[in-house]
Amino acid sequence: MTYSILSSRASNPFEYGVAQAKNLSENGVCIFTEQEVQVPVLLQLNVNLPMRPFHMLLLGKALRCQKAGDRDLYEVGIKFVGILPPEFKRLVSVFPSSGEAELGDNSGSQETT
Fold it and tell me: For residue 31, what is the enclosing H or E element?
């Protein structure tokens, strides 16, 4: 999964990062990333699901960001906003509700929705 910061108070509002996802649901997702994310901030998430031939773009609002234990990662809680793609609910149901899961690596198809 990758993300782009769409709005920020910082001078560089279009930051880009790579993340791993945990607890993907219809309401939001928890991601782990190497970069600290200032909250609240609007993000565009580019999700590559294994059972889907192209990426899914989702809009979310980062509501919290904290250091992930003793690792060099940040845990970011994101709530989805706006209209989600119609098939999203069905696709989310195949992922376990807990535990870390990397949702694709973006080295695949370039097509987006």
Answer: strand 28-33
